[in-house]
Amino acid sequence: MxxxxxxxxxxxxxxxxxxxxxxxxxxSAPKAAAETRSAAVRExxxxxxxxxxxxxxxxxxxxxxxVFGPEDPTEAIRRHCSPDLQRQxxxxxxxxxxxxxxxxxxxxxxxxxxxxxxVTAVTPSGDGYYRVEFxxxxxTGSRVLKISVPEGTLMIDAIK
Length: 160
Description:
With 160 residues, the chain is α+β, with helices and mostly antiparallel strands. The protein has helices at residues 11-45, 52-67, 74-80, 83-91, and strands at residues 2-3, 6-7, 118-126, 129-136, 139-148, 155-159. It has a four-stranded antiparallel sheet. Strands 1-2 form a two-stranded antiparallel ribbon.
C-alpha cells in the first residue's frame, strides 16, 4: 500500500530522515542565532564613529560578553582597558597565575538570589564618565566607568 507516493516500507525511513533534518536544523538554529548576536556585539565593541550612543553600546556589549557573559575577558581587557587599569585588575586578582579581577566591574557579592545578570542602564555623566546600572545575579548594582578614545579605540580607564 502507498501513501503519498511513498511505499509503506520506506515511510519509517523517510520519517527518520525528516526527523534527523529537523533536529539538525533545530540544533544549528541556536548556534546561528548566537553567532549573529556575537557578530553584533563584536561590531558594537568596535564602533566606527565614536558618539555617546556608541560608547553606551560598547559598555553594554563589554558587560554582556565579558563581565556577565561566557567569553574569556583576557583579550578584551588587554585591548579595551588602559595599562593602568590592567595593572590594577591584575594586582587585585589574588590567585595563582595570570588573570584579571573582572569582578571589579560587578557588585562584588559572591552569590545572588537568581541567575539573572544584565545591564539595565548606561548613562553618560560628562567628562568621559558613564554610570552603568545592572542586575548581578539578581542583585542591583552600579559602577562608574571612565572612558577615553586614544587612537580611535574605546578604552576603559577607571572603574569606580
